[in-house]
C-alpha cells in the first residue's frame, strides 16, 4: 500500500537534509568522521534567564535508521515549529539519538559576554556527548548554526574539542542542528516556565524571557531580578 502523501513529504524532507549533511562526514583530504554533532543555542537575545545550547549526535547508521520515521522529517528550526509540535518532537529526538544540553547562567553571561557564554555552552554540551559516547574528539565533527569563529582550547575550556564548522541557517538545513534547536528550545522553555509563577510581574509565560514591551515596562516599574542580564544595560 502506498504511503500517505504527508508521510511521503516528510520522508523526502528528511532525505534532502541527509544528502546535504553527507558532505560533512568527509573532507577534501579524504579524512572521515564517525559522527556529527549538531549544535544550536536558544535565548541569545533574552533579557532574563540562561542561554541554552543543545547538541545532538548522529552517525550515518543512525540517520539511515530514521529514514522510515515520519517524525524525523518534521524536525526543523525550532522557531518554525509550534510549541505543541516541539513538545511532541523533543522526546522522540531524545529517545533515538545521543543528546545534551547546557544552560549557561546569567552570572556567567554578565561576567564574560553572551558570545563567550555560547562558546562555553557548546564546550559543555559537546564534552558531555563525547563522554557519554566514549568518542575521541578527532572522530567527531561539529556543525553549529551561526557565523561564530570560536577557537578551542581557551581559558576554562581546556579539553580537546572536535573540529567546529559554522554555517548560517544550519538549523534549517541539517537534521542534527535542527534537532539540537528543538531540544534546546524545549529544555529552556521548561526552565522559564518554572520561573514564571515566581516572577509573574514580568510575563515570562508570555515572553520566555525575551524583551517584549510588556517585559521592559515591568522592568522599569519593578526593577531587575537576580536572573535578568544586567550586562544587557537594562534599566530598572
UniProtKB/TrEMBL annotation:
A Pfam family of this chain: RNase_HII
Chief localization: cytoplasm
GO cellular component: cytoplasm; ribonuclease H2 complex
EC number: 3.1.26.4
Coiled coil (residue ranges): none
Cofactor note: Manganese or magnesium. Binds 1 divalent metal ion per monomer in the absence of substrate. May bind a second metal ion after substrate binding.
Keywords, in A-Z order: Cytoplasm, Endonuclease, Hydrolase, Manganese, Metal-binding, Nuclease
Name the record gives this protein: Ribonuclease
Organism, scientific name: Turneriella parva (strain ATCC BAA-1111 / DSM 21527 / NCTC 11395 / H) (Leptospira parva)
